[in-house]
Design a protein that fits this description.
The protein contains six helices and eight strands. It is an alpha/beta fold. Strand 2, helix 3 and strand 3 form a beta-alpha-beta unit. The radius of gyration is 17 Å and the shape is globular.
Length: 214
């Protein structure tokens, strides 16, 4: 994000806010986890692959959330392995959001399907984490977007934060920030961090910390 806490410009441009050394560290984080998760809006805006680059070592499971079935099958993450790259992919939605024909196309592209019972306001993230644990996923990296991060943090489902901050000012009241959702109405309700660590990566800064249990 930028120094003023923006993950994209008002026009939606987000590549690249941070520099090459920060991006390289981000890829090293991908290599250490069992799975990487992305929300619908980020998948639509960035069309990411979510693969560690360069491709070496472990290949984490890629989890794609799409409660309303809005993601085009032509997205890289949902395409054939030739486009999407090696490794398992898990598409998460709710019953009725996708046609049987669409789900069949995804499966033929090598995408696994997980349909969860609908929950008011979005997917049941607690149930999703339970399902991921059944797949022996113990470390999950959530790369976006803001609404997904907000929902997870609001329900105390996060354990660590890694914030890559670039010396840039993007401005704009409508430019998105890293954490969306409902937020906390009182300061005393906010999440506290501990064990803060700082590292310089080129011109950027990485701040990492643990999220204290509520």
């Amino acid at each position: 994000m930028s120094l003023d806490g923006k993950i994209a410009t008002v026009g939606g441009e987000s590549q690249w806010i941070t520099g090459s050394k920060a991006r390289a560290r981000g890829h090293s984080l991908r290599r250490r986890v069992d799975a990487i998760m992305v929300g619908t809006e980020t998948a639509l805006a960035d069309d990411p692959l979510l693969t560690p680059r360069p491709a070496r070592g472990r290949t984490p499971l890629r989890v794609i959330l799409d409660r309303r079935g809005r993601l085009p099958i032509k997205l890289k993450l949902l395409s054939s392995p030739r486009v999407a790259g090696r490794g398992r992919r898990l598409y998460v939605s709710v019953p009725g959001a996708n046609s049987a024909r669409r789900l069949g196309k995804l499966e033929r592209s090598g995408v696994e399907i997980l349909l969860l019972p609908p929950r008011a306001g979005g997917l049941d993230l607690g149930l999703l984490l339970d399902e991921l644990s059944k797949l022996e996923i113990s470390q999950l990296l959530v790369e976006g977007g803001a609404e997904l991060a907000g929902a997870l943090l609001k329900d105390s489902m996060g354990q660590e934060i890694a914030a890559f901050i670039a010396p840039k000012i993007l401005g704009g009241a409508r430019a998105p920030s890293p954490v969306g959702g409902e937020g906390f109405s009182k300061l005393q309700e906010s999440l506290a961090l501990s064990g803060m660590r700082q590292e310089t990566l080129g011109e950027d800064i990485l701040l990492s910390a643990r999220i204290d249990p509520c």
